[in-house]
Amino acid sequence: MKKTIISVLVCCLTLSVMAQQDIRFTVSDGIKDTAAKQRMEQSISQLLTEVNAACAQERPLALGTIDMAPGGKKSLGYLWQNLRFFCEDSEISERCLTSAEGYVIRNIFIQVNPMVEDYTDERNRELTIRLTRQGQIASVVIANSDHAYERIVQSGKSVTDFERRQTILAFVENFRSHYDEKDLNALRQVFSEDALIITGTVVMKKDFSGDRPQLRPEMTYKVQSKAEYLRNLDQCFKRNKYIKVTFSDIEVVRHPSNPDFYGVTLHQHWKSSTYEDDGYLVLIWEFREDDDPIIHVRSWQPDHIGNRALTREEIINIMDFEIPQKSSF
To answer: pLDDT tens for residues 192-204?
Structure first.
């Protein structure tokens, strides 16, 4: 008990010190637009300084004066209600990456200060900050723990494919954060109206092939509409104090006959205050002209059937679905 109290006091002291320091963020390289560079350095410095102050003072974020898009402020506010964090470094310098939408700053290390007592997951995380081409902050998310970002992006076979892979990784990070933030409206927008939601479940079934009936694990699938899935997810959000979703082993595949469709396969770890599981998530994205990409299929399977791990052939992928041919007109 004494050790716990000391740990809490040390944490509180650390947060108090952080709150008194302004954080200075600089871009090391990767951008030639001087005005955009200065704008992002100033806004990210102000944002991280406010994050530390709000975390130390245990209050909501005050984002009114931060140079940040309204949607980004709203999303970060949702995340802050469930998961707070702070930066230990007062001087941060990172390279600016270029994306299809603008710019990306990665590898901003943070410490999570959860809002629930039974949070037992990793405290050391990273932020990804996305910015417009003018240097305004567009969104802030807690990054995936997966380190395959460069490998996936560099697999692009053309400029368009390269940019789309960057866009997919950005959307995947935002998609994951929608669950952490319990943002049902954001999830409603990212799924197409006719989206197919497939959920695999392992059940025990009787096997009569031998001399004596035996129970054997078998995968069964449940199909939901978008409306049904969101309705069930809403109930899940309400009964859980927190939800933490992490993605790893991300693989991006462009469909061979329709380059506007991409299949994203990843390993998902879901942990909430009432439930925990591991499985394979598949998202089938369509890129649309003059509009955001949209998800047509979301499938999830547990990564084991009984004691046996799923083989690569058993994991659902984009080739398991009928993808429309790309029109030549």
So the answer is: 999 999 998 877 6
